[in-house]
Amino acid sequence: MSLTTILFTALLGTWQTRSATSLGANDISKIIHGVDFRESTKPFLKKLPFLPMRVQLNCSCAREIEEIRDQLKYEVSQRIEMLGTIELFISEIFNLKTLVNSKVVSSPVEQPNTIQATAAAEFEEIAFSSRLSHHLTNLKPDQIVIFDQLLTNIGSAYDHTTGIFNCPVSGTYQFFVKILSGFNDKVETALIVNTIEVTRLYSGAQHAHGSSTAPVIILLEKGDQVFVKALYQKSSHVHGVYSTFSGYLLRPI
To answer: According to its record, what are the GO cellular component terms (predicted)?
Structure first.
């Protein structure tokens, strides 16, 4: 609601509710139009102190006009004060933005890819894969299956002459063992860490070859030994080429 509407409503309401008044409709119009509301707020406030005196001479509603004048003056002063506060906040935000930008330029934050690349560079990659180059027959219990044909040996942790993986770095590792039995035969093997059996594999079939695969994820300490061994006397035949042993370091600790 505009200032003109507020003032006119107050004057007209007072004039209508009183039985006797010396102020007519034309007088009200003259009073309202006597103030230029298109001017800025401060010039308008300068005119307000003279308004009650003029109204008091012509009507009995000077008190209401005085109250409206005080209220308008208070609201304008509040808005001027609020404007100053907003300008202060804007200045503080600008200063803070300038400070943050200067910190970013002087101390750039490493990107996630850069951090990962740096962490990966600090650790040696460990991975191997080997297979049997020939058939193994007449295996004895606890005999280590030596996968003698190296395919990959990053870090040189797997010894293809003994069939043993020697853990060079403590961490989480994944291993894969695949055993194919001889034709119309069976073989039982196990993945061993030091002296502990981690998992077993049974491979066998009638009038065919039998295959078994075991993927495992295990936590190793530096110096642990991992290998595959036969379990029973009847574990007599491991088929070459198709039987493999692989592993790699997932994450060091």
So the answer is: extracellular region
